[in-house]
């Protein structure tokens, strides 16, 4: 009697229905993964648009602008690949490593991946860049403006020019090849149409006589005089 009953030191269990930190991290990761997948689909469309714009600049002989378009495209693809790698790394950590021993690392990696994804979405859009290139004439000014709107000290100088030039040279060869085939086809088509018109004109023209010219017989002069005399008689009213 009088002795105090000792309280059990059993570990407290989380309330039923609550989300554990691990579950929350996995949920955040899946949300980020879904956002990345949507962004990658958009990026694929943007890549096609940027390639078409670069081809247009190459056809117009504006290689400096074509280079900037390719550099901007390379930058977008590189950042997307970095985010993909980061999120895959976090997914692997969550699924294979003990949560208690790697909780801090998983959360840090998750935060880093989400931050990278957020920064990508905040960057300038492809439409903004292409509109900027159409409005500004000086290439150096365009690159400076792109660097400003990208922010965080990021510039297109970090993109390898040689790799972009290699793609542009291949693009130029492709354009010349297609242009040559198209020009050749148009020339052949024009020759065919010209030949058809000549044949049609020949069919419509009357045939020339093949033999000697036909000589009309001469009318005797005396008879001609009689006919003229008859025609010259005019009845005079009495």
UniProtKB/TrEMBL annotation:
<keyword id="KW-0813">Transport</keyword>
<dbReference type="GO" id="GO:0032511">
    <property type="term" value="P:late endosome to vacuole transport via multivesicular body sorting pathway"/>
</dbReference>
<keyword id="KW-0967">Endosome</keyword>
<protein>
    <recommendedName>
        <fullName>Charged multivesicular body protein 6</fullName>
    </recommendedName>
</protein>
<feature type="compositionally biased region" description="Basic and acidic residues">
    <location>
        <begin position="174"/>
        <end position="187"/>
    </location>
</feature>
<dbReference type="InterPro" id="IPR005024">
    <property type="entry name" value="Snf7_fam"/>
</dbReference>
<dbReference type="Pfam" id="PF03357">
    <property type="entry name" value="Snf7"/>
</dbReference>
<dbReference type="GO" id="GO:0005771">
    <property type="term" value="C:multivesicular body"/>
</dbReference>
<feature type="compositionally biased region" description="Low complexity">
    <location>
        <begin position="1"/>
        <end position="22"/>
    </location>
</feature>
<comment type="similarity">
    <text>Belongs to the SNF7 family.</text>
</comment>
<keyword id="KW-0653">Protein transport</keyword>
<keyword id="KW-0472">Membrane</keyword>
<feature type="region of interest" description="Disordered">
    <location>
        <begin position="1"/>
        <end position="26"/>
    </location>
</feature>
<dbReference type="GO" id="GO:0000815">
    <property type="term" value="C:ESCRT III complex"/>
</dbReference>
<feature type="compositionally biased region" description="Acidic residues">
    <location>
        <begin position="188"/>
        <end position="206"/>
    </location>
</feature>
<feature type="region of interest" description="Disordered">
    <location>
        <begin position="174"/>
        <end position="238"/>
    </location>
</feature>
<feature type="compositionally biased region" description="Basic and acidic residues">
    <location>
        <begin position="224"/>
        <end position="238"/>
    </location>
</feature>
<dbReference type="GO" id="GO:0006900">
    <property type="term" value="P:vesicle budding from membrane"/>
</dbReference>
<dbReference type="GO" id="GO:0015031">
    <property type="term" value="P:protein transport"/>
</dbReference>
